[in-house]
Amino acid sequence: MNQDQVKTALLSLADAPLEFSVILSGKKSSKVNGLYKTETREIILHNRNFAQDVSGENLLLYTAIHEYAHHLHACGRGGTLSSRAHTSEFWAIFHELLEKAEGKKVYRNVFAESPELVKLTGQIKKKFLEENGSLVKELGKQLLRACELCEQIGGRFEDYVDRVLRIPKLAAQTAIKMYQYDLDPALGADNMRYLAGIRNGEDRSGAERALLAGKSPDSVKTALRGRNVSALAPKPEEDRRIMLEKEKIRLEKTIDTLSRRLGEVEQELVSLPQR
Question: Pick from 26, 81, 111, 245: most CB atoms within 10 A?
C-alpha cells in the first residue's frame, strides 16, 4: 500500500478542511509507528514497523487513522494542537473514524474475527462488568435504606458512612444515584458512575443509550459537552454523487497546484545557463 492509497482511504472516511500529506518513511522505529507534524500537516508512517501481509497492512491503516484523527482535531482548532494531544475530543474523533473505516471495509475489526476472543469478551462483560455494576447498584439501594434508618434513630448518615462503613462519602452518594436513576448494570460500574454524575435527566438518558449502543465513553463525553448526544446516532451513507464531486474538487486543486509548480520549474530551467 503506497502513500497515495493511504491518503485516499483516509479521505473516504472524512473530508479534511486543511490539506495534508501522507509520507511512508521507509524506516523502522522502536518508539512509534507513526506521528503527525502539526506545522507541516504531515502524517508520517514508519512502514517498516509493519509486516508485509494483510495483518500488517491493517495495522498500518490503524496507525494512519490515528494520525489522521490528530489532523482533523487540529483542523477543528484552527490548525493547531495543544501540548496534550490525546484528549477526550481526540479519542472521540479517532473512534468515529474507526467505526466508519470498519463500516466501509477500509479497516478490519480484528476483535470480531477471533471466536476465542469474542467468547472471552462476552464472559468479561457478563461476569465482571455487568455483575460488578449490579453489585454497586444494589449497594446504593442498601445505603438508601441505611440512610432512612439513621434518620429514624437520630444519627447522621454521613457519620455512619465515615466511621462505620469507612467508605468515601462520594462513593456512597454515587452508588445511591445509580440505584435511584435505575442505570443499566450492563454498562459496568465505571460508566454507571459517569452517568450518575450527569444531573440533567435527558442528557443522562441520551448518554446511557449511546453507551449501550456501543459508543466509546470518550465519544459520549465529547458529544455531551456540546450537548449533542444525538449526533452519535448512525448517519446515512453519503450520496455517491456528492462523494465523487468532492473527490473531483480535490483532484482539480492538486492538478492546479502541480501545474503551477511545473511552470515555475520550467521557467527556472530556462533562466539557468546551459551546461
Answer: 81
